[in-house]
């Protein structure tokens, strides 16, 4: 093998390796970012649920009724 064939081949291989390394880093960075956004969204939803639960608890305490006092149970459907 002569140098005129080996040099471009080695340059191509090194360039491909560098490109794949950068691609892997970007993929990892994006996965971390998406995981962070998901955790942040879940945290916000939990906070909203907790606030709603507290507000419902305070409303029950103020009215003096249990939370399900106004709910009427549905009658079972009769079979034909």
Detail the topology: elements first, then pairings.
Elements: H1 3-63
Please, could you describe this protein's structure?
The chain is mainly alpha-helical and 80 residues long. It has one helix at 3-63. The longest helix is centred in the middle third of the chain and has 61 residues, at 3-63.
Q: What composes the largest sheet? A: none
Strand content: under 5%
Write down the oligomeric state. single chain
Order of helices and strands: H
Rg: 31 Å
- Rounded average pLDDT: 85
> Which residues form runs of ≥5 with pLDDT under 50?
none
Distance between the termini: 89 Å
Query: Based on helices, strands and strand pairing, what is the structural class?
Result: mainly alpha
Instruction: Tally the helices.
Output: 1
Q: How many strand elements?
A: 0
Give the overall silhouette. rod-shaped
The percentage helix is over 70%
Please tag this protein with its features.
mainly alpha; 76% helix; 80 residues; single chain
Provide a compact summary of the structure.
The protein has 80 residues and is mostly helical.
């Amino acid at each position: 093998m002569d140098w005129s064939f080996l040099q471009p081949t080695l340059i191509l291989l090194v360039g491909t390796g560098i490109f794949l390394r950068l691609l892997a880093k970007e993929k990892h960075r994006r996965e971390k970012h998406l995981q962070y956004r998901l955790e942040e969204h879940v945290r916000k939803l939990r906070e909203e649920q907790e606030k709603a639960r507290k507000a419902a608890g305070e409303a029950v305490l103020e009215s003096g009724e249990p939370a399900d006092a106004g709910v009427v149970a549905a009658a079972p459907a009769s079979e034909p």
